């Protein structure tokens, strides 16, 4: 049977989390369909049909779908569910907002935050902020999974030729009005998807000092992250928070600066390939997960790192 | 106006959990238990709405065994008026929790339901969304700001890209982010007062809902441990190691 993947996008481009989710779907079936619900999405549909692993792209294009309100999207998905053995969405705030609503309409239990697919009915997911790993089995008429993007590679976004099917928009009586999105614009790589992440914590002391961190991030072409403490203190926006209730990241290099390393923060970054911790407190738990630890004042260390990186670049060029 | 708050009893967020040696789950015996942290934000918000005169009654509901009474007492010590424990020995999946809450909502008729955005034990992040769909009420998830004027509800939601602002109307189901507010500590006099507030206990079987689990836990294991790292003496050494040993820069 076919597997349905719900696309996360911004009406112009797919989010990379969609490509990670498609790779997860490949473990379940060779017949993968992608449903794109949005507004003015002709171009997006055209690009998406080239994704290597897809056999079909399902389109539902309506002005009302522009802002991804789950009250409108969920029934459109549950209406076509009988054709599928599984429905997958990324475990992003988009997928978390939407898929449980679909599960309610279908009267099935969703499995959240899947990090591995053992077989068509057996899945692995972290619990307790990743301090335990649970293997679960389910035998429902249809299985709904949110997929942790960092646990699956991105699928190729070219080389395919999927068919396109359009489904009609069915309106739902909706009481919610979308006002706006406050999105911070940045030229840096996307946090969930960057090769290098430079993260700051309460040790940075204020938002002004985060500029030091930005400078280092730009030197490394890295994304910027933050601990919950730094976000709560207003040093930086919530979209940068890494951790159990923020974003999950697994870059090749994670540099934690002035972050003590609460369990809830470690949950979001301990799958990173190489972890660097810079903290003046030698007892900070972040050192327990770090590959390289440096006990130092970050206000001295960051400029020194920038200087060393400049030197390296000079030698190379 | 009436507010219902859903509260879960979980292992305290500061406790380092232990996986049971038979891999059947996580050890919860003789471990400090507390109110699920984002549920505390839901309690705080309900109490604040009452203090602002927007709400006449606040009710906390928990689903669990006898011991879940303690999180309801905590809720009432923070200012909740009364509470209900739905007693069960089983661990309920989010779908069953939402169905149980729906039954109580039909009886108590609140105008607003508040709960944490996720429980920090199983990290499912589903119950509010499911409940909103079952009730066919508007859904507001991961909120970090709430304003109620008459029937109008304005919320800010924390999303991956930043903040999303929505306007909706009552009745509604809202799930709370940790940044919604700062939960108050219960003072000793309020803890004493909470002991006299009403706490009804009802058996889950009396609600007539199917709570049979749909998911079977095969095993629970420890996550793989990271290899011990090294301390470097200075920035020069760090950059060198990242360049030539780890080869990541």
Brief synopsis:
The complex is a heterodimer of chains A (317) and B (249). With 317 residues, chain A is of the alpha/beta class.
What would your notes on this structure say?
- The complex is a heterodimer of chains A (317) and B (249).
- With 317 residues, chain A is of the alpha/beta class.
- Chain A is 26% helix and 28% strand.
- In chain A, helix 5 packs parallel to helix 8.
- Chain A is elongated and about 60 Å long.
- Chain A starts with a strand and ends with a helix.
- Chain B has one domain: 3-Layer(aba) Sandwich (Rossmann fold), CATH 3.40.50.
- Chain B has a nine-stranded mixed beta sheet, with helices on both faces. Chain B has a two-stranded antiparallel sheet with strand order 2-3.
- Chain B has 249 residues and is an alpha/beta fold.
- The chains are: A alpha/beta (317), B alpha/beta (249).
Helix content of chain A: 25-40%
Beta-strand residue fraction of chain A: 25-35%
Euclidean distance between termini CA atoms of chain B: 58 Å
* CATH C-level category of the largest domain in chain A: Alpha Beta
- Give the CA-based shape of chain B: globular
Look at the structure and give the mean pLDDT of chain B.
97
Radius of gyration of chain B: 21 Å
List the helices and strands and how they pair.
The complex is a heterodimer of chains A (317) and B (249).
Chain A: E1 2-6, H1 16-26, E2 32-38, H2 42-48, E3 54-61, H3 70-79, E4 84-90, H4 93-106, E5 111-114, E6 116-119, E7 122-127, E8 132-138, E9 143-147, E10 163-166, E11 177-183, E12 196-200, H5 210-219, E13 223-226, H6 228-232, E14 253-257, H7 263-269, E15 274-279, E16 292-295, H8 298-316
Parallel strand pairs in A: 1-2, 1-4, 2-3, 3-10, 4-9, 5-9, 12-13, 12-14, 14-15, 15-16
Antiparallel strand pairs in A: 6-7, 7-8
Helix pairs in contact in A: 3-4, 5-8
Chain B: E1 2-6, E2 9-11, E3 33-35, H1 37-51, E4 57-64, H2 69-78, E5 82-87, H3 94-108, E6 112-116, H4 127-135, E7 139-149, E8 152-159, E9 162-169, E10 172-176, H5 188-194, E11 199-203, E12 215-221, E13 230-232, H6 235-245
Helix pairs in contact in B: 2-5, 3-4
